[in-house]
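Q: Sequence in, structure out?
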Amino acid sequence: MANKSTWAARNPGWPVMQPRQPLSTVEKEHRSTHAASRQISAAQQKDRDALLNEAIQTLADEFEAKVQVLATTHNVTQEKVKKLLGGHKYYRNPRGTQLANAIIHDKAHEVNEEKLSLEQIRDLARVDPKYQDMTQEEKDELLRALTEYRALKNTSIRATNSAAARDAQSTLEHIFKILDSLALRTGIYVCLFATRGHVYDSSQPFWYGTDNIMDFWEDVMDLEPDEIIRKLEQWACMHRKSKQTSCMEGMQRMCAPNTISCVVAKKKIRINFVNFEVAIKARYGIDLLGWPEGVPFQSPHTITNAEHLRTLRDALKAGTCRWAYTVPQKSVPM
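A: Exactly. Output:
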């Protein structure tokens, strides 16, 4: 009987996020030493920041006083003086992939066997000559590697049930904080129910609601939230109707809308992969361009290789695989 004790075991062929190995005694002592050093550095930095903030506040007060004098002397508003002085600042969004992070990521892969800290990896990268005077192609390659790593990390599955449970709890708590803030800012009402999808999973069922939204279930539906989450857990575990029971099925569903049908002259047609050249390409004058190399040309529902499905999904998402007319649209016969 196949092993189905974990989410990773139930989805073979999918990339697995390996759990961290416990630290050895020497590594724990090394980490404690670094922690003590960081505490001392943090205290020193705090004192320096306080002095800097005090100096900046003094400078700001002097600046305001001089702006007021200039405005009064020349009979203009203080806002105009500040604008002429270049008081408006424009900042770039810092959320994009940064070269500094890409360099650290590359160096971490190089020395990952030594289990170095982030600060140690950063120091090694700073003095490494290969990161000095890089060409634009080398920089782009590092950025691409980091982008691919982040994408893979977001779609990798947890190797153990305990790791999956911690991930679920941490992510849900983060979502709850975001929704609480959203409700405070906009007055929106939100309720959320989440449960494990298999009897072997150790994630605990959650329910959440903003303000008094949960009163809706009791007053209108005559159901208590605890009863709803209990029934949801039973439905997901006993009847196995979770929509995420198979990553393969999920990717098949993601690829299907863009491949198994197409709209031609306002008419939706279903794609015949077996007789594609005659039934589709010749008849309607359309072609599915950019089909990934190495992936069998067939309906996503019949593809059973996870890597092939992942490649096709990425191509459809990036737009490299797309429908296109092979003849002018007006001459397409229907």
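The first strand starts at residue 16 and ends at 17.
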